[in-house]
Amino acid sequence: MSQLLSLKAEARDRAGKGASRAARREGLVPAVIYGNKAEPTMISLNANELWKILNKGHFMNSVVEITLADGSKERGLPRDVQFHPVTDRPLHVDFLRVGADTKVTVAVPVRFVDDTLSPGIKRGAVLNIVRHDIELSCPADSIPDEIVISLQGLDVHDSVHISSVSLPAGVEPTIKDRDFTIATVVAPSGMKSDEAAAADAS
Question: Quick check: 157 pLDDT over 50?
Fold first, then answer.
């Protein structure tokens, strides 16, 4: 499961572009925590601390515990990060406030393993990834870091569907009306030509 991240923050009294520019000049990144039937909380984050956490990965599907200067704490799930178009430095962050029973929707990356145990790939086939991540509904305190899918036993023309993926307890895909494809084992052009020739000869 994704780890709980921590950030320190200062309360912001003012909103608007002018206040945001002033915060950035002081090395801070404006942010807001909203949702869970409470008033939005405007905060400022240390730009360097935020940058370090962003570079670790998994930021968008990790709950962040935000500690304010007065000692109060809020937990939020990052919903949007705005970046500078030239420097790529963060300009603003939106957090969705989460409670103990909050269910959230997140896009969780997929990682494929056991490619050496796939007969198709060993014969020269290629893994065609249809979905690099899966949108999941899950408890805020049980967000998976990634979904690991084994390719063991997959041959040419085989596919991986969501029905064959084991998800953690309480976690389910947001798409429920179809058994969608995540990846397929595809024959390269040379193998396709051999298969076609064999079919013509039979």
Answer: yes
